[in-house]
């Protein structure tokens, strides 16, 4: 049970002042809360002996009211501090998870589904919050309050009666410990089922158009119903185990009440204690119901929190497989692929084979080839997305492994095939490449990307919301906003990864001409299926099955009678071979 608290010892150590204050205030509140029972017992004894007076009654009532007021104030203070600590640790862990998600390489997301990661960042984090708030609350409150009440029962009434009345308690602790272990295992299964269900929801939402086009609504609904039922069954298993705690607590408490009334009556007949003492003792015993019940909740909450924290720690402790120890900074952009070979972490075959390219700073490299030939894989090596393979990738005379990943990517403007846009305005999406850009730089990037005419037709102009993932825009508009986002950065190396596939030939020519004119002296890499986009390139390579099948200029490749010349002739004749 206490494994959860041990895992968070770093937080409690950093915030020891907060938790020492909580403990001190709580101890004061606990002492105050046992005083009313004493006042009630004394009042009964004063009434039975005829010693009660109006003045004495008002004194007792005044003390009672003052104690209640002080208890309320202290209770508010320590709970405020405790819940504040839980919110703080939740924020810290959430930020750690976000940093982990932002810094991990693509292979991490290939091994971990998005729905599962979201479940850990939401549902599991909520369980951790509950454990650090109500779990720690019940731990501190139940133990200190129980200790205070037991001392008050023994000192002010009778240690003998206290001993016999509390004999059933160890049995409850043993049973609850066993139940806690079962809850821990069941909660892990429940959270895993929730992760699978969450991932399924994401797939359904993202693929809803495809599902409708293939009339698969009912099969998908049945599949999701199966996942929901699985989660429900596993969750209810946790709740069934949880439901056993309260009845156990009530049974043990009732046994203690029976002992207290029976043996208390015997002691009163012997003159060892008074009737007022019996009333006071039973009030104390009734007050023990909360800490007894809280102990039951404590096992449950901490076990759930521990299971969730273990799942979160699994993510936080995952090491990135891309080495980022490099500290050297790129100045020039000369690059050399020296016999580079690479295999994806989950692949069973080699994805790049003996790649050799020399590209001087300021030159344009065109990359063509069939689908799945390795074009994007080659680019990802330059972006340092995956662990380095065999051979060396040299930039500015330095191996990529020696370069800082952040510093390297700051030199690069990358427009990917996916054209990812945020659910923000057009302007905010473009400025993402350079938040501090001037209005002149913004408009120049829009002109260079040939998006200016589209912008004029938008009612809200730059303030137009693009919708989630750019759903309100056409494919060509999304591509041009992505290109503008890269151009506004004015990077030393610009990479267009099949970024012109959704625009017409006239718009493509305008964009390419603008890039050639604006990026003189800077390196540009264009990956494309449409060969007209790279006819001007200084070097063109044709990829095939992870290898360079052809290399040269447009003129040289047209004379080779290879794939490049065949494809060029095919498109020149309008697709008629």
UniProtKB/TrEMBL annotation:
Pfam families: ABC_membrane, ABC_tran. It is found in: Cell membrane. GO terms for molecular function: ABC-type oligopeptide transporter activity; ATP binding; ATP hydrolysis activity. It is a multi-pass membrane protein. Residues 335-570 form the ABC transporter domain. InterPro entries: AAA+_ATPase, ABC1_TM_dom, ABC1_TM_sf, ABC_transporter-like_ATP-bd, ABC_transporter-like_CS, P-loop_NTPase, Type_1_exporter. GO terms for cellular component: plasma membrane. Keywords: ATP-binding, Cell membrane, Membrane, Nucleotide-binding, Transmembrane, Transmembrane helix, Transport. Its main location: membrane. May be involved in multidrug export. Transmembrane domains (TMD) form a pore in the cell membrane and the ATP-binding domain (NBD) is responsible for energy generation. This is ATP-binding cassette, subfamily B. The lineage of its organism: Bacteria, Bacillati, Bacillota, Bacilli, Bacillales.
């Amino acid at each position: 049970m206490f494994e959860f608290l041990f895992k968070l010892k770093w937080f409690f150590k950093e915030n020891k002042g907060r938790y020492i204050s909580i403990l001190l205030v709580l101890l004061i509140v606990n002492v105050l809360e046992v005083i009313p029972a004493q006042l009630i017992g004394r009042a009964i004894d004063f009434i039975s002996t005829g010693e009660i007076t109006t003045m004495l009654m008002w004194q007792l009532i005044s003390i009672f009211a003052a104690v209640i007021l002080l208890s309320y104030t202290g209770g508010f203070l320590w709970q405020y501090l405790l819940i504040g600590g839980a919110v703080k640790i939740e924020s810290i862990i959430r930020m750690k998870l976000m940093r982990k998600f932002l810094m991990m390489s693509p292979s991490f997301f290939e091994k971990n589904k998005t729905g599962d990661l979201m479940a850990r960042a939401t549902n599991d984090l909520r369980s951790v919050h509950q454990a650090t708030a109500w779990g720690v609350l019940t731990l501190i409150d139940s133990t200190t309050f129980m200790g205070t009440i037991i001392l008050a029962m023994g000192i002010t009434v009778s240690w003998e009666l206290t001993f016999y009345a509390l004999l059933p308690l160890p049995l409850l602790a043993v049973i609850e410990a066993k139940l806690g272990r079962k809850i821990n295992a069941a909660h892990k299964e429940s959270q895993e089922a929730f992760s699978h269900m969450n991932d399924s929801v994401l797939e359904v939402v993202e693929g809803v158009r495809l599902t409708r086009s293939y009339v698969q609504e009912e099969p998908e609904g049945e599949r999701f119903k199966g996942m929901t039922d699985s989660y429900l069954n596993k969750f209810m298993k946790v709740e069934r185990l949880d439901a056993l705690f309260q009845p156990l607590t009530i049974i043990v408490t009732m046994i203690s009440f029976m002992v207290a009334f029976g043996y208390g009556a015997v002691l009163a007949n012997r003159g060892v204690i008074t009737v007022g003492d019996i009333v006071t003792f039973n009030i104390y015993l009734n007050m023990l119901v909360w800490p007894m019940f809280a102990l039951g909740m404590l096992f449950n909450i901490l076990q759930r929190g521990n299971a969730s924290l273990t799942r979160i720690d699994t993510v936080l402790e995952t090491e990135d497989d891309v080495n980022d120890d490099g500290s050297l900074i790129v100045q020039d952009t000369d690059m050399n692929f020296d016999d580079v070979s690479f295999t994806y972490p989950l692949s069973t075959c080699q994805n790049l084979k003996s790649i050799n390219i020399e590209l001087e700073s300021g030159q344009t490299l065109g990359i063509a080839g069939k689908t799945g030939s390795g074009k994007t894989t080659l680019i990802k090596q330059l972006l340092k997305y995956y662990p380095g393979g065999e051979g060396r990738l040299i930039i500015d005379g330095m191996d990529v492994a020696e370069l800082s990943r952040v510093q390297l990517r700051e030199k690069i403007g990358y427009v990917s095939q996916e054209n990812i846009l945020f659910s923000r305005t057009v302007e905010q999406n473009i400025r993402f490449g350079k938040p501090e850009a001037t209005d002149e730089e913004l408009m120049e990037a829009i002109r260079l990307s040939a998006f200016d005419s589209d912008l004029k037709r938008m009612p809200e102009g730059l303030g137009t919301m693009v919708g989630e993932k750019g759903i309100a825009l056409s494919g060509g508009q999304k591509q041009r906003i992505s290109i503008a986002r890269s151009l506004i950065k004015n990077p030393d190396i610009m990479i267009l990864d099949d970024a012109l596939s959704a625009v017409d030939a006239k718009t493509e020519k305008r964009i390419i001409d603008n890039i050639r004119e604006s990026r003189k002296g800077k390196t540009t890499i264009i990956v494309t299926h449409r060969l007209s986009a790279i006819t001007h390139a200084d070097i063109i390579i044709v990829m095939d099955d992870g290898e360079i099948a052809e290399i040269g200029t447009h003129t040289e490749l047209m004379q080779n009678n290879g794939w490049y010349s065949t494809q060029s002739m095919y498109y020149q004749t309008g697709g008629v071979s």
